[in-house]
Design goal:
7 strands, two-stranded antiparallel ribbon, alpha+beta
Length: 142
């Protein structure tokens, strides 16, 4: 499902754990984008901006925007139509049951909304979808 460029990039990871995280995150991103675009995930192409951030190739139009953040074993993906979107996640050691700080979602600047303001149902659906994709991707990398 990954492009030659993504496979080459994953091969440069020094440790297997980092390589696996990259492959799972990119696979999940491709699967989600494929659903939104009605396209096979393996056919999705990216371009990269001056900072190395991936963007959809112009052949897929310019309406769909996404952002991906990762920390430790957690990857967070946001996708939006007709709006820039950004996410961030940070692993904080010694936090007990959850090692992740509360996150915020932003839709362009300066509008931002706290994750705690999102509807519980939407968060649960997103978590469930994320878990299903992550489980599927992990099976692919074993």
């Amino acid at each position: 499902m990954l492009s030659d460029d993504e496979r080459n990039r994953s091969a440069r990871f020094r440790f297997e754990k980092g390589r696996r995280r990259f492959v799972v995150a990119r696979g999940a991103l491709r699967e989600l984008l494929g659903r939104y675009l009605g396209t096979d995930p393996g056919q999705i192409r990216f371009t990269y901006n001056a900072f190395g951030k991936p963007e959809l190739h112009p052949d897929f139009g310019d309406r769909l925007k996404f952002n991906l953040a990762h920390s430790g074993d957690l990857t967070l993906i946001a996708i939006a139509r007709d709006a820039d979107v950004g996410v961030d996640v940070e692993c904080i050691e010694g936090r007990g049951e959850s090692s992740y700080a509360p996150s915020s979602l932003s839709r362009g600047t300066p509008m931002s909304a706290s994750m705690s303001n999102a509807s519980r149902g939407a968060v649960n659906r997103a978590t469930l979808t994320s878990h299903r994709i992550s489980s599927r991707q992990q099976k692919l990398t074993r």
